[in-house]
Amino acid sequence: MNPAYVGRFAPSPTGPLHFGSLVAALASWLDARAAGGRWLVRIEDVDRPRCVAGAADTILRQLEHHGLTWDDSVLYQRTRDDAYAAAVETLLAGDLAYACACTRSALAHAPRNAFGEMIYPGTCAHGTGMRAARAVRLRVPGGDVAFVDRVHGALRQNLAREVGDFIIRRADGLFAYQLAVVVDDAYQGVTHVVRGADLLWNTPRQIHLQNRLGLPTPAYAHVPLITNAAGQKLSKQTRAPALAAGESARALAQALAVLGHAPPPALAGAAPGELLAWASAHWRIERVPRAAVVAKALPDPDNGMPNP
């Protein structure tokens, strides 16, 4: 085993895994196994209101059914509030973050970036005045944050111009995803993050947070998303069908094809273990499609499984 490589899969328990989730999980698992590294599972249940009872257990069973086993105990973000609070206090004490009193309605006319996200105009950057503090925001730099994605190559983003100071503790007291993922990746010693391309432009924010907290930056790779026939990203919101235990081999073969690693004809009808053994031996991150961020999939009339 290669102790220098630690990967992870970090699903949110808002429902069962679907085919798009499998593509991301499989890519992460294969990248770790091909490197002789460790692969961890973290349940990102920091956003309590969105979590569905029993979903975390379902996700873990689905991973096991598809042969994607992990190497240590599962980490649940709901147990990590003290660590997140300590990180927020460190940032506030260094004037790297500040209290924000803005409401959604007050920011309704703020500019939006290319992804439809609100660009915070810095209203509370120098104080809230007489208004009660609600959230905490991280100050962002004026220059670009640059990184090299292992799939998409060299990228950069100007956080001040394209995002603005972003929330790390929400108005409801819960901690934001951006903070939790950075604190937990460092805590678990994660060295390589392989995840879906919908999170590609979260990376500059997370790198900036890592720098401010003095934490290491993992290597990042973002793999294609999967859409339905209408061009919508597969998700719980678009009613993507859950992975079925009886279709594990078929789903793995389709996911491998999406990732540029279609199994050879000799493996047609192979069991999940055989497919994973072949894929681990042949995995090359360079073969993952780069040009298309989204890989389209059509529903199979037989069982609803996507066909790449």
Describe the structure in your own words:
The chain is an alpha/beta fold and 308 residues long. It has a domain at 6-79 and 224-307: HUPs (Rossmann fold, 3-Layer(aba) Sandwich). Helices cover 29% and strands 18% of the residues. The protein is built from 8 helices and 14 strands. The strands form 6 sheets. It has a 3-stranded parallel beta sheet with strand order 1-2-3, with helices on one face. A 3-stranded antiparallel beta sheet has the order 4-5-8. Helix 6 links the parallel strand 9 and strand 10 (219-223).
Order of strands in the sheet with the most strands?
1-2-3
Under CATH, the homologous superfamily of the domain at 6-79 and 224-307 reads: HUPs
Mean pLDDT: 90
Helix content: 25-40%
Brief account:
With 308 residues, this protein is α/β, with parallel strands linked by helices.
